Amino acid sequence: MAVDKKTHDVDVSTKSIVLLSLDVSHLDSTYYVPRANVIRLQTPGAKEKADRQNFKIDSDGMTSTATGHNSYLLRLSLKPGRYEVMDVFGDTGRFPFHGFFSVPLLLDIDVPAKSVIYMGRIAAVLRPRQGNEFRAGSVVPLLDQAVTGVSNGTFDVAVSDASQTDIPMMRAMFPSLKTADIRTVMLPAFDRDKVQQWWEGDSKNTEAAPVVAGGTASEATVTA
Question: Which residues of 199-214 are buried (b: 16+ CB within 10 A; e: fewer)?
Answer without folding.
Answer: beeeeebeebbbebee
